[in-house]
Every structure is written in C-alpha cells, then in structure tokens.
Amino acid sequence: MTEEVELAKCAALQKASKYVASVLVTPDQLDKVEQIRRKIMRNKAAVDSRLKTAVQSQIDGIRSGLNELKSAQEDIAYVKKSLEEVSNIFVECEPLNDKLLKVKVAHERHAKLAKTNSHLGLIFNVPETIKLTENLIKEGKLLQAHKNIMELEATRDDLLLEVYKIYKEEGSKESYTDSPLYAYFSEVDNLSVGMKKQISMIISRTLAAARHTPTELVTSLRIVEREERSDARCINQEKLTGFMPPGRPKCWKDHCQAVIKKSVENRFDSNQLELTDKTDKMWLVRHLERMRALILDDLISVKHLVRPCFPPNYQIFKLYIYYYHDAMSRMLEGFALNQNPSRPNECVTLLQWIAEYYGPELLGHEELKDYVNELKLNTTKENEEYRLEDLLSKGVIDSLTELYVKTTAANIKSCLEKMCLSESQDWNQDKLPETSGDGSFQTSLPIILFQMLDQNV
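Structure for Exocyst complex component 3, as requested:
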C-alpha cells in the first residue's frame, strides 16, 4: 500500500512538473505564477471536497448496511425462536386431533345436512317443476326449461354424490343407482331427452332456421354450450371423486354435428328421389346442374346466415363444406358404379362435372374458394378427418374412362360396319350412285363418319 502511495506521489510530481513547464515557457510569464498557483489551489480544494463527499457517502452506506445486517440477524434470531415455540405448540396440540375427532365428524354431518336442507325446497317441488318444465319445452321456451333442468340435475347430482360417498366409505357393493333418490329423480332424464329432441329438430333445419328464426337457433346453441361446460365439470369431478352423474357426458355438440351431417344427407337424398324418369338422355345433366346450384346457394347461405349464429369453435362453414363434399362424393360414386354401358355420354358428363367441381361455378366461387383451399390443404391433426379428399377415387375415374372408351369404340365399330354394309349395298344396286357436278361418284360416308367421331371423341 505504501509503495502504491509513493508511486502515486511520483506520478503526480512528474505531471505537475510537466504542467509548470508548459505554462511558464518564457521569463515574462513569471509574473503570472501567483495567479496560476491560486487557480491550482482552487481546483485542488474542489477535488478534495468531492473526494471527501464520495468517501463520506461510502462510509454512510457501509454504516447503513451494517445496521441492516444487524437488524436482519436479530430478525432471524426472533424467527428461529418463534418457530421453536410453534413447533413446541404443535407437539402439545397433537393429542387434540383425537379429542376433536367427534367435532370433525359432527362438522361433516352438519355440512351434509346443511347442503340437504338447502335442496329441500327443490326436492319437495320436483314433481311440480318437472310438469312445468315439460310445458315450457312444448311451448318452445327452451332457455327457461333448460334452467329448470339444470337446477334439478344439480340437486340430484349433489345428493347422489353424497350417497356415493357413503357407499364408498362403508365399502358397499351397491350402486347409487339403487338408491330411492335415483328413482325419485328418474323423470329428470326424460326432460333432458325431450330437450335434446327439440334442439335436434331445430338443428336439423339449420338453414331454414337461420333464414327465418335465427333467435331459436342461437338459443339452442347456447343450451348446447351450457351442456358442454357441464360435461367438462363432471369429467373433472370424476377424476377427483370417481363419481359420474347419470347421463353424463351428454356430448350434445357431437350430436348436433351428427344431426347437421344427417340433414345434408337427407337434402341430397330428397333430390335423388326426384329422379323418376331416367329414360330421358339429359336426366344426368339436369340433375347435376340442379345439385350444383343447390350446393352453391346453400353454402353461401351458410356463410352469411348460419355462421354468425354458431360459436367460432364449431367452424361451421368448413364443416358444411366438408359434409356437402362428402355427400356429393357418395352420390357421384353411386352414379359411377351403376353406370349404364349403353349410355357412354353419361360417363363423359360425370367426368366433365368432376373436372369443373373446383371451378368458379362451384367450390372455386369467390365466396368459397379460400375456405375450400384450407380444407384441401388441411394437415392439422385435430381437423384431419375434415380434409377434402378427391371427389371420386382414381380407381372409379379409371373405370368410368375405360367404360366410356370401350363402349364408344364398340359403338363406332358397329356403326362403321353398318355404314360399310349400307354403302356396299348401294354400290351393288342396278342404278348408279350419286354423282357430283364434274361427274365423279360421291358418298356421304366420310361426312357421317366425321360427325360421329366429333360427337364421341
């Protein structure tokens, strides 16, 4: 430390010497020595003042830190002493656990009785509430009816949970479904079934409901969402207690999607029932055009009218596109597999319609194409089942093409044979064939042949 101080003094002396040498260059500058000395002394005093302030600040900080450490040490000692006292108190209180066991049992019994007491009003009014709810369902007041159903189910589930716990504690092999309470609330399940039927009926005519009674549709979907949340709560409860309320999970959302799919299938089936006259050569063209217009109109209606009524997590527009695509695929596959070999032009009609399926007249329409592309490129695991596959499999398309080529080739061959036979008979007649203006013989065979090729190839 002393050596460092000496080195610092030497460095300061050298620096001072250089400074003096740089200031007093000429003899006439010696008159300014006193002025320079005072300036340097002022600077020195300012530096000393700052240094003292900095040192004092550091000393104050150290003093404050030491005080904090001392205070922390005292706090630690106090906490340690308090923990020892608490530990001693716990040791002394341990025997109280056995002494208060009766109080614990009484408390649990009181809690159960209090819960039962809170449900007494609903329990006594169950038959009346059931009748009222049945009338509400018939009148179409579904929200109020569902509120009553949820209250009845909540009361039933709480009571059956207690019965389940009692059986479990006693090690009984009986099920809560054997208790009188379960039989007493049996009509509640019928209310739920009636509500499900009403909602299914509304969902089955989603397009019409969205156009004319959107409030009814939204109400039904709100009820379905409530039931989905109740299902989630019951599943979590089962993980904790092992108890699953009767009739749960209801899975009404999955049921609604199944109803929508069935309604789309029925819409296609009802249009196919109109195909009574297949003797008309243009029946397939007209039917496919009718289906194209129906699909396009329905999907645009779903986008603008149905989609705002459904929760976003349903992705209802994409779901409808997938269901219509699936129904159309099955319908075309039925046509292709039952194709009449005597009508090869129908094969061409089917193949041409399939080629134009993703065009602007149908799924390539401005209103649909973005969503269709998402479904075609859908690679997410959770939505993989709703990916748009080919309208017809390659095998079916190949069989259609093969049937058309084979039938057309056979028809052309048959026609050629007949035309050649007819021409041969004409040439073998007693009269001369027709002649042109320059006296050459002529025949209409090439014209007929090219017309036939133009129509079939």
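Residues 121-250 form one domain.
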